[in-house]
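Incident review: delayed structure delivery

Summary: a single-chain prediction request sat in the queue longer than the usual turnaround. Root cause was a stuck worker, restarted by the on-call engineer. No data loss occurred. The affected request and its eventual output are reproduced below so the record is complete for anyone auditing the incident later.

Affected input:
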Amino acid sequence: MSANPEPAPSAPAQDPHLTSREAEWLAHTYQPDAPNLTLRAIIIGMLIGGAMSLSNLYVFFKTGWSMGVTLTACILAFSAFRFLQAARLVKKPLGALENNALTTVASGAGFMTGGGNMAAFGALLMVTTMRPDSFSMIAWFALIAALGVFAAIPIKRQLINHEGLAFPTGTATAETIKSIHGAASGDGASKSAWLAGSAVFAAIVTWVRDAWHWIPHTIGLPMTLAGRQLAEWTIAIKAEVVLLGGGALMSFRTGWSLLLGGVLTYGVLAPSLFEKGIITAVSYKAIVAWTLWPGAALLVAAGLTSFAIDYKSIARSFTGLTRIFRPGKTTDTGLAAIEAPEWWFPVGFVVLAPGVVFLMVWLFHIPLWAGFVAIPLAVVMGFVAARVTGETDVTPTKALGPVTQMIYGVITPGNLPGNIMSANVTGGIGLHAADLLTTLKTGWLLGAKPRHQVYAQLFGVVAGAIVVVPAFNLILPDPSVLGGETWPAPSCVVWAGVSKAFSDGIGALHATSRTAIVVGLVLGVALALLEKFAPRRLRPLLPSPSGLGIAMVIPGSNCIAMFLGAALAEMMRRLFPKLAEKTVVPVASGLIAGESLMGILIALLIVGGFIAA
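Output delivered after worker restart:
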């Protein structure tokens, strides 16, 4: 069932408020008669998005990353409808614009783990005894994500229609949808087959490992370091294909930076710290309790430096902000009939912001005035995040979160829950604004209806919030496992550490930790500056600050596994570029989906008493 058709646009010449780019788009790209947001797209999109939010939840607490949703979702959607057609459950094939709307729903749901949502929630449980009820947290995440959707509306025309920012993931998704929905659709079938095959393989491996216990999680290496087995230093081979898949979706530079950081952290630094008595046990938790500080400092410094270097982009982001107060005329025809009206932004915030402020006061004991400070701050940060994402494809939550934590560390000293969750507001709004604009870029290139994509994203964020909170409680019923070798939760560790530092003061730390923080800050600034200003040919040789920083807060075995995934993918791209284009993303996505979804199913069976832990 398709949505009601909207009026066809008037001829460009009849609407004096169109730019030449918009007139060209209406005349040659826009497809007024193609189905966009349909009931079946909403339903399947929510199902796929819910599954991908489960997958991302699993991956996030293993690696610290939330994996991209849109590329995988559009291939999954294509595969699902081919199956439904073969089973005679649907008659019409999935259209390209329908897939785009479906993917927008799925992206809104699947990214519910990002933007600091799970980092903040996990950190909250790590540093406090507070555990808000599920209904309150579902409302919290849904309201923040919906505010991000409305924050994207007033800057969409500026960033996409007028300036044509790249939004690389959005552009790549558009090309993928065009490819798999081509006349022969052979490319789509091929990618679907690779994704399905790798998912089945990963699910089988996970079942054999976690349900039958025939394969160990970690395979030790027959070597010692400082008189201890390498596995005690977390240097081992992980039998978790989800890590291989995650590595394959990273750049090779990030992959080898993880390996370098892991070797330096667990092969050089940790033995030295143990020998000097700075750490008193050879275990992951004991090591990371110290390495957290330089790792977090490196990540924050690199994020803030990159953020500051791009001052022109930041300044340009306020163009969208000022346009809220001087919107151009709109008509009921032409572009205005299909764009989301700019007045939706203030109305959306008037309706939703009081709910967020109420939850900040009620759940996290943030003073009412400080809660009201968070909303305009988050809007500004959301506009900045959208601009940076459009130009670089990186949403700067690693910078936005600590900035908010620093502000709230000053205005509400000693309030750990408030410090963490206020940063969640900033990060969540920024991420979901950037995510919607990324999918709107896909729609712009395909000729879709922007207003339908706003509806789609709102359906998605509701589905994601409903799924992700109960799933978190299911797979992590005991928060004490966070920060351990099974669930490293590196982003939670970093958020918790930053919050403690701003709340308790750096002076409360051990002297060596304070020195390590300074070293991490200097290294983060230096790497970010080199990344920006070094000759282009040398940049691939520079270690990634994200890779080095994350390596200091995840086990060395995870670093090795993700490096292997990145190396295999890079080898494929260099030796077999055409085959790599068809296989790397589908296979990696399948490995992630297969293991994570089977891992969650096994957790359900353990809770139900059907299999032993």
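Verification: The mean pLDDT is 81.
Action items: add queue-age alerting; document worker restart procedure.
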